[in-house]
Design goal:
Layout (H helix, E strand, L loop, with lengths): L1 E3 L1 H8 L8 H8 L6 E4 H17 L1 H18 L4 E2 L3 H10 L7 H13 L2 E3 L13 E2 L4
Parallel strand pairs: 1-2, 1-4, 2-3, 4-5
Helix pairs in contact: 3-4, 5-6
Length: about 140
């Protein structure tokens, strides 16, 4: 079972124009959708990115909004994991003795709490958390 980071979800957007990383495409094609989960933090990151794009490029922003609302949210419905008290407490331990990125720590804590493998390009952001990692980009 996997916790899909926002950079992997964003890469999946590129499939329709043939520009997606082939490792990500292969991983996605060979993994059951029901095995893929997303953190609420990744939903926040994607929404934030779309809001910023909508301000600069209305057409591309509208395309991203459509993809997000009509593909991503329905695909992961029921498999978007919240930041629970258990996740928050586990996340606090990841910051001591060395503080880390709040978002990455919350994603790592979510994966640790639910015993999931984080699927991400950004291995270095998670490598000291003890979470299992998979980089489909390589």
């Amino acid at each position: 079972m996997y916790l899909v980071d926002s950079n992997v979800i964003s890469e999946l957007y590129k499939i329709k124009n043939g520009k997606a990383n082939q490792g990500v495409v292969s991983w996605s094609d060979n993994t059951e959708t029901e095995e893929m989960f997303v953190s609420a933090i990744s939903i926040l990151e994607i929404q934030k990115g779309i809001l910023m794009k909508e301000r600069k490029d209305k057409i591309q922003g509208a395309n991203l909004r459509d993809w997000f609302e009509n593909k991503i949210l329905p695909t992961y419905q029921g498999r978007i994991l919240p930041i629970s008290t258990e996740v928050a407490l586990r996340c606090a331990h990841l910051h001591v003795p060395n503080p880390k990125s709040a978002f990455d720590s919350l994603i790592a804590a979510t994966a640790l709490t639910h015993d999931l493998i984080v699927v991400t390009r950004n291995i270095a952001d998670f490598d000291t958390t003890g979470v299992k990692l998979l980089n489909p980009f390589i």
